[in-house]
Amino acid sequence: MPDHANQSPLPRLAPRERNRKLPLIALFYGLGIWTAEWTREGMWALWLLLVAALFWAALKLWHKPCFAALFPVCMMVGILITQPLLQPAIPQTGAYDSITASVYGDPMPRSNGRVALILTDVVLDGEPQPGKAYLTLQLTDTIQADAFFDGAALRMRGSVYRPMGKQNQHDFDFRMWLLQNGIGYGISGAREVTLQNTRDSAPWKDVAARIRGFCAARLERFMGAESALAMGMLLGERDALPEEQQAAFRRAGVMHLMAVSGLHVGLIAAALAWLFGRFYIRKAIRLPLIAMLIILYCALTGFSPATVRATAMVSLLLLAQATGRKVDPLTLLSAAALIVLLLNPLDLFSAGFVLSFSAMAGILLLSPPLLTVFHGGGKANRSKPKSSKANRFLQRLRGKPKELLVLTLAAQLGVWLPCATYFHAWPLYGIVFNMLAVPLAGLFVPLYAAVLLVSLLPLIGGVLGIGLGWIAQLGSKLLLWVVSISASLPFAQVRIPSPGIWAYAFAALGMLAISHFVHASMRRRLLALSLAGCIALTGYALTRPAQVRYHQMAVGQADAALIIDGNTTIAVDVGAYGSEIAARLLAEGRDVDALILTHLHSDHAQGVIALFAQDIGIRQAYLPMGAELTAEGEEGYAILMLLAEQGVPMTTLSAGDMLAFGETSVEVLWPDAESYRAGRSVNDMSLVTLLRLGDLRILSMADVSGNYDRYIATACDVLKVGHHGSADGTGDDFLNKASPRLALVTVRENAVLPSPETMSRLAAHDVHVLRTDQTGEIIIQKQAEGYRIQTYKAGVINEP
């Protein structure tokens, strides 16, 4: 750390002192990693060596610096390193009678009464397997989350599966998350699970998790319930923090306090520098020792991308200071990015990496011009008469709020678009609460660390720990009170749709244009911004989706669809989990104007829970006649009760009813009120609708069986096949009358449905079939003449 308080940690370099080679190396290496996800595996990337050789020869011939010939090589290295990570070797999928494994780390609670475990040392039917596996278990009276621990030896039966990637455009990429954590496959259907050891006898598998558990126990002893906040802010362990408190941190825009990043690493480094300075440890020893300790701190927090980035930057800064070298901030940030991506190339696709480096890019590019604005165009830099040390101290003290405001504003502007992409929300008062919360964190993070360290001292540790713990408790309550205020403020968090690639391009060019990296007049900067804005608006206009479209979501063996008609949004079923349809609605900044639930089976209606959990409004719900009588089981009644509790008006429909929304109309074909009989199955009493999007006709058959579908058949262009393609529906008579050109089947990969008989009948009638397990999300866009089909996995398909 600097020897003098007034020394800037990142001295500004003259243009000739800057080196842009490392940023370009990092850029092309990252480009190679990104390319690897979209290309086939193989050694084809070696052709880039030939490109590099030709490039080098051309530069040599023109007497230009040949360093640029290294860029294709960097890209090749990124591709070749990343491809094996994206396609790891996994065991044969299918059922196994004997599975033994050890739990790695702590159990992770999941929704719906489940717990997730990471397994290591996996043995399948006597064959040891490399790598880690992912297992989820349904909690029961005999299987509880606290029964599992790091090193727990398990024996079970189950099936190995290969995790699927994204099925819908805005889904969370579960497969990528597993790969980023070194997990190549999953185990499902676990049964006859038995525990083979105890906590005391279990070997250490995740050393960091064990140490974090020890720290949690020590902090809880001296801080009580507030220890959950201490663990979140000190070590990034926020699972123990109540959900309502986590929600308050999100709404206040200070959730980054719960994710160990540059703020935490900087505070720990500053505290260590102060502590070692009191013992007069020489600089040559002090700085490397601080670097080593913050690297250990990074390991303890789990090597998240944000922590690795901050640790790398602080360590490199300390190294530069120890050797007396000046530091270029852009080079420092690029070196940190290289370190993160060399340790784990797949971190490039993580939200933590994008948010962390976007915040730093915002600070790097925007804080100098913002400081200039706040200092009145540089007037503050004019020479002034010398003043006393006390006056200089007061001047610096007065300048701290300005600097904090500028850094906070620059960082939040840097993460504006990524936050919109990942969270679809923005804290309206985020800057204000950061001005309060960040200084408090600057006090509490070192205080929590002090409580933890003091508690380890023999003899006096208990007494000192109680005293410091009491102070930390009061401080934690103060911070929680400040944060909780935001949760009660109106519009504390506003929803924003996902930005497109053109918004990112404009933001990147705009930030660069106003930064100190570009030497140009204000007129030229404004001209560049205007040109970038025109290009972005043109690109957005050309790539904007059709105003009227139908989305068949890929939700496994369930049903969920959306109809977009201008500003009107109609949902036809919402699936079992609702996360897929909620992600699409959040990405487009939409609520549901009309929710049509064909029936109350969980695979069609339970997703309503997720919509409300994501604060997605539902203005009107439509159900089949007699829905309250045919709501089989507690799940169906719970959905009706939830809709009623949320104040959603509910209307029942039967054959002959008609709904109209702009260019869209919904004609109800079934159930028929005259033929309604009590005791019929819920499937056979589900809503069948003919959806008209202009001239396009989509016949949505819900789960009606072949006993009734021949009475419902009507001419259509697109058929949403009933009951996932079961054998007792979609008969020849039905197909003769409906005469669709395209059929949509909603199914899960490797499931029993659709039946071969149904698929054969569709083929015999020359119907083009799209299955969601093969295509992912299906989008049918209405055009001036006809329609266009686009699938998430296969791209654009010509109209059949």
Verbal overview:
It is a single chain. The chain has 800 residues and is an alpha+beta fold. It is 45% helix and 17% strand. The chain contains 26 helices and 25 strands. The strands form four sheets. It has a nine-stranded mixed beta sheet. It has a seven-stranded mixed beta sheet with strand order 16-17-18-19-20-21-22. A five-stranded mixed beta barrel has the order 1-3-5-7-6. Helix 1 packs parallel to helix 11 (329-343), helix 8 runs antiparallel to helix 9 (283-300) and helix 8 packs parallel to helix 10 (305-323). The chain is globular, with a radius of gyration of 30 Å.
Q: Layout of SSEs?
A:
Layout: H1 21-37, H2 47-61, H3 70-86, E1 94-103, E2 108-110, E3 114-124, E4 127-128, E5 132-138, E6 153-161, H4 174-180, E7 183-195, H5 207-223, H6 227-235, H7 243-252, H8 262-278, H9 283-300, H10 305-323, H11 329-343, H12 351-374, H13 389-414, H14 416-422, E8 425-427, H15 430-454, H16 461-488, E9 493-495, H17 501-514, H18 522-543, E10 548-552, E11 560-565, E12 568-574, H19 579-587, E13 594-596, H20 602-605, H21 608-613, E14 621-624, H22 633-645, E15 650-653, E16 658-661, E17 664-670, E18 688-693, E19 696-700, H23 709-712, E20 718-720, H24 732-738, E21 742-745, H25 756-764, E22 768-771, H26 772-775, E23 778-782, E24 787-791, E25 795-797
Parallel strand pairs: 5-7, 12-13, 13-14, 14-15, 19-20, 20-21, 21-22
Antiparallel strand pairs: 1-3, 1-6, 2-3, 3-4, 3-5, 6-7, 8-9, 10-11, 10-23, 11-12, 16-17, 17-18, 18-19, 23-24, 24-25
